[in-house]
UniProtKB/TrEMBL annotation:
Compartment(s): Cell membrane
Region (Disordered): 87-114
Annotated membrane topology: Multi-pass membrane protein
Family: Belongs to the SecG family.
Cited NCBIfam families: secG
Bilayer-spanning residue ranges: 6-24, 57-75
Source species taxonomy: Bacteria, Pseudomonadati, Bacteroidota, Flavobacteriia, Flavobacteriales
Function: Involved in protein export. Participates in an early event of protein translocation.
Name recorded for this polypeptide: Protein-export membrane protein SecG
Alphabetical list of InterPro entries matching this protein: SecG
Main subcellular location: membrane
Keywords linked to the UniProt accession: Cell membrane, Membrane, Protein transport, Translocation, Transmembrane, Transmembrane helix, Transport
Chain intervals with Polar residues compositional bias: 92-114
């Protein structure tokens, strides 16, 4: 298993967690924090859930960005120079048996033998 595959799996997990955290939030400020009573002071309960969700959103977004950048570095290391095999195959000549074109004014070997 290559390092790029590991980073790809981590990127998918972090992206899923980021979607879940964003979907839990309410754009009007209620969200999950309002379902726990909405007050900032609870005894034995969740305090400031909105702040936790906000911090976790920024943390997961930063982690996702870092993982994407690190995966880009590893894919370039795994592939050698970071070039695609498709471009390598497209740049290869299709027919190598064709003789080179003759420049005007040059004589061929059969002309010089006569």
């Amino acid at each position: 298993m290559s390092t790029f595959t590991i980073f790809l799996a981590l990127i998918v997990i972090v992206a899923f967690l980021l979607v879940v955290v964003i979907m839990v939030q309410n754009p009007k400020g209620g969200g999950l924090s309002s379902s726990f009573g909405g007050s900032g002071q609870q005894v034995g309960g969740v305090k400031k859930t909105g702040d936790f969700l906000d911090k976790s959103t920024w943390t997961l977004a930063t982690l996702l960005l870092v993982l994407i950048l690190l995966s880009n570095v590893t894919i370039m290391d795994d592939a050698g120079y970071g070039e695609s095999k498709v471009f390598d195959e497209a740049s290869m000549p299709q027919n190598t048996t064709t003789p080179p074109a003759q420049m005007p004014g040059q004589s061929t070997e059969s002309d010089s033998a006569q």
